[in-house]
Structure prediction request, 465 residues.
Amino acid sequence: MTRLVISSDPFVIKAAKIENDRLSVFLLRRKSDLPIVGNVYKGIVKNISNSLNAAFIDIGIDKNAFLCIGKQCLHSLSISNKDLNPGDIVLVQVFKPIVSTKGPKVTTNVTIPGNFLVLLRDNEFVGISKHITDLEKAEKLKKFLKQFSDKHTGFIARTASQFASFDDLKKEIDYLKKVNENITNTAKVKDAPSLIYEEPQLPIKVIREYCDTLTSEIIIDDKKTYTSVKEYMHNINNKCSKKIKLYDNKIPIFKYLRIEKDIKSLESNTIVLKNGGYIIIEKTEALFAIDVNSGNYNYDNEAEDAIFDINKEAAYEIFNQIVLRDLGGLIVIDFIDMKSEKHKKELEEILKKLIEKDRRKMHVSKISEFGLVEISRRKSDNDIFDEMFDKCEGCLNSGLVKGLALVCSEIYEKIKYGDGNMFKLSATASVIEYMKEKVGSMNNKLVYETIAGCNAEDYTLEVLK
Prediction:
């Protein structure tokens, strides 16, 4: 049985996929910093860099967007250095988020995803997901979609389309074409730079990505979110709308479903393996570094076999953590050194099979002579490290502390589901200010006291009555 669970409060949105009572996917987004990937903007070319084969586009946010131009750019094949000049107006879509000091990456190839299909704007290509292995079904889908494509509109059939009827597909085609038409009309009347189309936020994206025939129910614990999601899914004629339920219980939803402990474990960068070994996940500016350690593993057998056992279990857990934490970009794994070529090849085969199960595009290298493996995984929005943690100013940004939004979310949950009619929150100034801004006194249920310090986690919540 598969469940999708969405929890929303004034500070964050959390979403989880539970398969056979086990957490398999977890996503978290701060409401103060919702992602822009998928958004379409009407931008202004600020300058051209011939050495970088790039144009920098003002899309109306703090950082200029990066548009790759020229023959080497897969995302903007139709644009060359001669096509753009400073001051030109372009319609672009964000496909990679802001990372540190770098602006978002954008493309002129605008796409509009639905539950079953993706509409390609200004592109007549018709394609089928590589995950649809039934060749006869794939051919029928391609033939059907070609009826509705032209030089301005193409389609890609997503994996879920193989289970949809042609009537369902036609309804989604009509909906996607309507969205595309709205983008065109809005772009005509809005001045640059401006937002033209906003990609649906996390609850919609999670349902669109993960709801399928195996999904038994979609549970949402916030009435406002429940109403908006239900309405949206009904408007696009998504059958998953019938599976959406409003959670109404006096226990926090993740605690009720017994996955609260699993979610809490994502706050730690150390994961202990069943055999006594452990892995450590660290995020740097350029990559994720994952170190495999033997820990208190009992070397009763031959040392080489024991090391292989640790590395093998670590490989499975690492891929589980990559999906759970939504890691993307370059990931470097430092396995325990193995001398046996046979063991190295076996571990490489395990890694190859694991990446085939992932929904994202991944590539894995062979094991180097130093026991290192490089994995590249297509980035989505911000990963769990970005959403859960902030850089610690007290240690010159070299460490991570739990983010302000997540701390306030925890406080809000304790009050919402706590036994008491009035609470006193003693916390740092940043926590007090953010709580007051978002929830105020919670209908005279909450009073505040500011304490010295800078760590958001240093708070106490006292029941007054």
